[in-house]
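User: quick one, fold this
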Amino acid sequence: MKKILGIGNALVDIMIPLESDTILEMLELPKGSMQLVDKERSNQVLSAMSGYRKSLSAGGSAANTIHGLAMLGAKTGYIGVIGEDELGGFFVRDLIQAGVDPHMIHSSQETGRAVALVSPDSERTFATFLGAALELSAENLQPRDPQTSIFQGYSYLHIEGYLVQNHELIRLAVKMAREHGLTVSLDMASYNVVEANRDFLLSIITEYVDIVFANEDEARALTGLEPGDALDAISKLVKIAVVKTGSSGSMIKSGNDRYDIGIIEVNPIDTTGAGDLYASGFLYGHSNDLPLTRCGMLGALLAGNVIEFMGSKMPAERWEHVRTRVEPV
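Assistant:
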């Protein structure tokens, strides 16, 4: 069985449902964005939300995708940095319980946290304090033993776009993955991150990436084009381009072949994790040599199910239901 390695910001999501978007304006957080904040600002946001209901979930985009893959039965691993604290322990236990092999680096800094404010229409806005996650560096990927590498034994490397702000780390990760024969997939993660790193992203994608996942805003930020044209443009750079269009589904293009994928009927509560779990389903299908249409349908299946719950995780009983709808491979 092919193994999939993820690398990303190891964060604990603090999910907070909102009664209205007024608080976002008060906190000066653009709706739907991911804002990087320092510890003081994170504490300020949490203080403002002191009277709201909260729930914790081990998160970070790549970790969510890898967790979803593991829950489907895939062999997986994850690279990230956590602190020696309660949140760090919570994060690692969550990975291990799902069957993920954690390749964690430990720091004296606090484990990162993402305060996710969920609007009444299910859209989420993140105020993210990276904490220890910020210490993930190119040096962490260098093997202590020249004869071994963290990439050995894996067939895929899945990267979250939030990491692309660390150019040295990403360039080394994709270079080493390519040297070890891994298929490289990249989830764009956030339109404002794409806008700030557009030239670097285009360079890395063209040279090293095989599969790109982007939503409408991210695809537009990368290409300056609307979804359909953006799909065409991205597909000229990589083997497989995927543009997710929310309630309209998703589009996949490989070479001259294009596929439009629908959605499943759901009662959305919170869109957190939808894109991450779409990638889980897609990569599970792709790693098992399923047709691209089936890969997209598996992505839609997982994305549709996770948005019926608060946070980026589904309860065990829902995973049991989902697995019955995934073809044996």
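User: anything notable?
Assistant: Residues 292-306 form the longest helix (15 residues).
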